[in-house]
Amino acid sequence: MSAPNPKLSELRRRAMALPQQPGVYIMKNAAGAILYIGKAKKLKNRVSQYFGSQTNHSPKVRKMVASVDHFDYIVVGNEFEALVLECSLIKQHRPKYNILLKDDKGYHYVRVSAPPYSRLSEAKQLADDGAQYIGPFMSSYTVKQAVDEANKIFSLSTCNRTLTHGKRAGDRPCLNHHIGQCCAPCTGRIDPDEYQARVNDAVEFLTKGRADTMATLQERMEAAADRLDFEQAARLRDRINAIRRLGEKQKVILSRIEQQDVIALAQSADTVCFEVFRFDGGRLTDREDFLLDEPDDLPGTRGEFIRQYYTIRDRIPPQITVDGEVEDTELLERWLSEKAGRRVHIVQPQIGEQAHLVDMCRANAAERVAQQAGMTGRQATALEDIRQLLGLTDTPTYIECYDISNTAGSDNVAGMVVFENGKPLRSAYRRFRIKTVIGQDDYASMTEVLTRRLDEYLAHRDEGVGFGRKPDLILLDGGEGHVSTVKPVVDRYGLDIPVFGLVKDDRHRTRAVALVGGEIDIHLKRAAYTLLSGIQEEVHRYAIDYHRKRRKKSTVSTVLTSIDGIGQTRARALLRQFGSVRNVARASTEELLLVKGMTRPAAQAIHDYFDKENQSEGE
């Protein structure tokens, strides 16, 4: 955690003296290095926010503020001029705390290795190795996609096996051959000339395109059929069908809008990933992802990302489709339109094809975040969906869920389960015996449990683990009444922890999320629904399992402790020694004396108790 800035009061005093005019501010450290450049509609209001209370700032902003020694500012005529100047200064100085996107676009090639048995692969640079190079291309995505298509359509080898003519003893084709994606040259099933003809067709496919290749293959198929070479005609027919099938698969990422970029983000506890899908001619032609530090606020971060992205990219499409609110949308549209020389719109779709493309883009961003955080893409998508559904600022990577279990108010207990990064964290599970509530009162029981849990957090928060870790989200197995009861408890501690309930239908399946004032339907977000229902099932299982153990122990304990001279300690010792009450009842007095802490009068009392019970049953 960053130490407080000793100059904070002086910096705030200077900020309060700034004019209420638009401009650009430049934060610097003691050495004069620029830390951050920002724009403001009103300089005084914006800059003074940095040097006020630090509790509402993100860790990134707090760290930056702790390093600020002084700041400069430039007053401009209007907010648009401030935006243009900000972009120019960021590009020139590249400050540490601004979003800085690396322009790593280079040239990419398709490499065709020398015959016989040539292979198609992606290459980032030319080499004097006897191979043929097709290109250059600007998009690595385009090259990878094209190489993958060509290898699959023409069944070319992509494995690491050495390819030589003639089958060797024990050689067997790999899985790719069995699923129809390799002609298995490693086993001698195809001679070099025939394999090289496939490679030549693949090169033609890459250089001339899908339509021309289809026409050429169609002509060759018909010619082979005319000369009664039906085997060759069948092979050509299969290649034509493979190209058609590939086209059908790609329809899911076609857009009716000819040229656009789709931008979506996903985030974890300390990382945010922006994914960009670039469409040209209605077809996905490129995709990029950018990993950034934790954002301060999503609308502002989206706006800053768009500014930086189109500073390093020449092509600006007429439509930019985004997954959420963007700060200064009108200013950005004006800036982009001037750069592009035509009207540019920023849109946020809610339904239809465009919303589907945004979801797909976000899922890819979630996959990238998942790789960083050790999650699966599905888990990252589910957490991002939960964040959006519940209107949370940050992705809830650490979730606690609570449930109460009792039988008509007896043996009242609670269970707490923890999910981290969308997975159960069983080492953090906790069980509670309800101490202050008599009878069946779930609201009071839940209040006790959360009070005890938050007391433990305050006592151990410096440790940062177990009860010392603050949850990103608290879920309760219950409806609006549970939330209305528990939320004030959390608020009393001054902790900004969102609280929601999980509501079941009449078949005991999760159907909605409860909040104060209503419910949120979760069925439209499949990944979120699956995770939330899994959390609710897990907390119910955990709580009821603990309740059953307590109830069984209570019943057994009551039988033994009803005997003169047998308290809780001796009852537990007896059960440890014999395993069950039935075995205790069958034991002789001498066997009972072997139990640690047992006296002969107590052993005799046990023997007499069960002997009398056996006689009563006989009568």
Describe, in plain words, how this protein is organized in 3D.
The chain has 619 residues and is of the alpha+beta class. It folds into five domains: 8-93, GIY-YIG endonuclease, CATH 3.40.1440.10; 108-252, no CATH class; 260-374, Nucleotidyltransferase, domain 5 (2-Layer Sandwich), CATH 3.30.420; 390-551, Nucleotidyltransferase, domain 5 (2-Layer Sandwich), CATH 3.30.420.340; 562-618, 5' to 3' exonuclease, C-terminal subdomain (DNA polymerase, domain 1). 46% of the residues lie in helices and 19% in strands. The chain is built from 20 helices and 19 strands. It has helices at residues 8-16, 43-50, 59-67, 79-93, 140-153, 175-178, 192-208, 210-226, 230-250, 298-309, 329-340, 352-373, 377-390, 442-460, 480-492, 526-561, 568-578, 581-586, 589-593, 600-618, and strands at 23-28, 34-40, 70-75, 108-112, 120-123, 132-137, 260-267, 271-280, 283-293, 319-322, 345-347, 398-407, 410-420, 423-424, 430-433, 473-477, 499-504, 510-515, 518-521. Strands 12, 13, 14, 15, 16, 17, 18 and 19 form an eight-stranded mixed beta sheet that branches. The protein has a five-stranded mixed beta sheet with strand order 9-8-7-10-11, with helices on both faces. It has a three-stranded antiparallel beta sheet with strand order 2-1-3. Helix 8 packs antiparallel against helix 9 (230-250), helix 13 packs across helix 16 (526-561) and helix 14 runs parallel beside helix 15 (480-492). The longest helix has 36 residues, at 526-561. The N and C termini lie far apart (76 Å). The relative contact order is 0.05. Residues 247-252 have low confidence and may be disordered.
